[in-house]
Design a protein that fits this description.
Chain lengths: 229, 122
Amino acid sequence: MIEVKEITKRFGLKKVLKGVSFTANKGEITCLIGINGVGKTTVLNAIMNLTPIQSGEILIDGEKISKNSYEKITFIPDAITMLPQMTIGESMQFMKDFYKSWNQARAKELLDFFKLKEEEKISSLSKGNTAKVNLLLGLALDVDYLLMDEPFSGIDIFSREQIADVFTSHLVEDRGVIITTHEINDIEHLIDKVVLLDEGIVIKEFNAEEVRETEGRSVVDVMREVYKR
Amino acid sequence: MNVIFNKRDPVYVQVVRHFKEQIATGGFEPGQEIPSRRELASRLKINPNTAQRAYKEMEEEGLIFTEGNNPSKVTRDEQKIQAVRGELISEAIDSFVESIRPIRVPLEEVIGLLKEKYEKER
């Protein structure tokens, strides 16, 4: 389980996170939702220890984040970090050389799943396919937790569907996933938990099925109510 | 298997309903093997935890059964199958009555129209 406890973060005088708390379980998909600029990416960066926080703490399976956390968790940014002149195969090789947890068999399976070819150059890929390669490079690591920053943003509907399909497949298996997004429509059925962020705080944290069951409301219904305040 | 989900009912409830329809209409034969939790999640594009929840529910209701480590199967209990059929019929009638009643059509007229439509649409 990832436990985020009362974390605060300032950029200069601007308080971006004002005491954010939530948990994300293994075997579940947790969706961090917020209108742009509310600090979603900052939360992911804090979990990865990529940005120092002013106060609060983050525990991964009960332990404070440290260098060893990188064996358990990976961060998939919203844009690919490989050089454009590299091929998909070369990017995979780079990851393999760099990470102990690289799982080549799973990488190949993901390649098939996304209908991509190793010899294709990153620079020649469509936006949607670039997003798939980016995701592939992270999903092929044998880690317990995956943090994905806006995996659905700015790509065509078919690519979005294909990416959503990964979440219901064995390729994500029983890992813990945290996704940030500002558009939920395509993935309402896929997610377990929803964490609504606004102005640097968590305004609501709930289980999607539970809200449907006890209140007869969709995730979007709840968002509409909460963000209208 | 293709199910269009609405966004306000629990997904697991909608999955159970789909299975009931299949069982009642013979889409699933008694004793037929059903997909694994993972396969179902993949095919219906739903969360695997939700698929698990649906299976647990159906197991408890006696709609499916599992022996040891084998794949789960559709119930062979004829009484159960008839009960599911009865439940679906009753629900369909309820929803029909609920939508026709406010229009205040005499029952005889409804029956006449129903008969005509039912036979024509077949």
